[in-house]
From TrEMBL:
<keyword id="KW-0539">Nucleus</keyword>
<feature type="region of interest" description="Disordered">
    <location>
        <begin position="68"/>
        <end position="88"/>
    </location>
</feature>
<feature type="domain" description="SANT">
    <location>
        <begin position="1"/>
        <end position="54"/>
    </location>
</feature>
<dbReference type="InterPro" id="IPR017884">
    <property type="entry name" value="SANT_dom"/>
</dbReference>
<feature type="domain" description="Myb-like">
    <location>
        <begin position="1"/>
        <end position="50"/>
    </location>
</feature>
<dbReference type="Pfam" id="PF23082">
    <property type="entry name" value="Myb_DNA-binding_2"/>
</dbReference>
<keyword id="KW-0805">Transcription regulation</keyword>
<dbReference type="InterPro" id="IPR009057">
    <property type="entry name" value="Homeodomain-like_sf"/>
</dbReference>
<dbReference type="GO" id="GO:0005634">
    <property type="term" value="C:nucleus"/>
</dbReference>
<keyword id="KW-0804">Transcription</keyword>
<dbReference type="GO" id="GO:0003700">
    <property type="term" value="F:DNA-binding transcription factor activity"/>
</dbReference>
<dbReference type="InterPro" id="IPR044636">
    <property type="entry name" value="RADIALIS-like"/>
</dbReference>
<protein>
    <submittedName>
        <fullName>Uncharacterized protein</fullName>
    </submittedName>
</protein>
<dbReference type="InterPro" id="IPR001005">
    <property type="entry name" value="SANT/Myb"/>
</dbReference>
<feature type="compositionally biased region" description="Low complexity">
    <location>
        <begin position="70"/>
        <end position="82"/>
    </location>
</feature>
């Protein structure tokens, strides 16, 4: 199954801490800890997460609801400019 529950994600995180990149049969072991996923599914999940990390680190992707610093500063200035002396 392609959807992951929060419990499976937590188990996945724990499994990655236990089985590092040098562990033989790493993905089989991770899948066993996660439950309900194949070795191929957990490897694909890992690969997708690593792609996300690379995008975030390169500045190509921002989480939903996140404002870039310039946009945040601009909106703060606009909000502050609209305050009257009575608001202070």
């Amino acid at each position: 199954s392609s959807s992951w529950t929060s419990k499976q994600n937590k188990s996945f995180e724990r499994a990655l801490a236990v089985y590092d990149k040098d562990t033989p049969d790493r993905w089989k072991n991770v899948a066993a800890m996660v439950g309900g996923k194949t070795a191929e599914e957990v490897k694909r999940h890992y690969d997708l997460l690593m792609e996300d990390v690379k995008s975030i680190e390169s500045g190509q992707w921002l989480p939903l609801g996140y404002k870039a610093p310039a946009a945040a500063n601009s909106s703060n200035r606009a909000r502050n400019a609209s305050l009257t002396d009575d608001d202070h």
